[in-house]
Sequence to fold (111 residues):
Amino acid sequence: MAVSQHIVGWVCGPRILPEYLLNVLKSMDQEYDRLTRGSTISTIGMHDIEGFKTPLPPLEEQREIVEHIEAETERLWELSDHVEESIDLLEEKRQAIITAAVTGQIDVPDV
Fold:
């Protein structure tokens, strides 16, 4: 259904899971770029939206796809957190080395 001039809402029926549809829509960046028109406000026309197609596997397969995406997303967030922690630790160590060099606690050879 069209909610306003620039917002479209989907109401899922019994054959598609909302979480599955959300992931399908999130994966369509290139399609959105191809369909976007307008110089001031970029929009996609209702005619184009009505033409959207999505794969529609059985509900159990949709659940499996959603669970896989959620598990991989969680794994990526954990990796991202680990990288951020590593960067913070390296910045602390860098600052400690600079402080030690400036205060004469370590000998810095002439290069």
Summary: The two ends are 69 Å apart (CA to CA). The chain has two domains: 1-56, 57-111. Strands lie at 2-4, 7-8. The longest strand covers residues 2-4.
